[in-house]
Each structure stands twice: as structure tokens, then as C-alpha cells.
Design goal:
Blueprint lengths: L5 H10 L6 H24 L28 H5 L5 E2 L2 E2 L10
Antiparallel strand pairs: 1-2
Length: 99
Amino acid sequence: MSEITPDLVRHLGVLARIQLSGEEVERLTGQLDAIVDNIAKVSEVATPDVAATSHPIALQNVFRSDVPGDQLTRAQVLQNAPDAADGRFRVTAILGEEQ
């Protein structure tokens, strides 16, 4: 016997604040019933000796170790800057200040 009834679907629609037509209630009753049946089938297969997994294939971390490398000198960093002053990038004011 089906666990999902048209009355239950209408109630779920009210809870979700979704206005459902009669056709939608009929269609959703069948669809939700099929979903519940499939979940029941999966529940039958799931036994305590089967480990829970989030992925069917084991995943590995693909990140490399964070090892510091060679650093640029201040002169190298500023060599292609459009404008520099006192060893820093020089940019235009952004808060309405005049230059």
C-alpha cells in the first residue's frame, strides 16, 4: 500500500507554501511514492557491514606542500610598475582626494 496519498501531497504543498493544482497533486503523488519505494529498496541493501561512503572511489588530496620559494627583490617587483615612489606602488587616490 502506498505511503504517499494525495492528502499528504496537498499538506506538503501547504507547508511549502506552494499552490498545487489537482493534476500536480496526482503527478506528485506517483512521483513521491516511487521515490519512497526506491529509498526503501536502498535501505534493504544498506547493512551494518557496508561502510558509509561519500564517494564511490577514494579521493586523495592533490595539493602540494606549502614550501617557500625564491622571493623577488623590491626592485624586481617595482620594475614594471607604472608609477612607484619610496619603494612602493604609487596609485591615484580613490576617496575623492585631489592629487
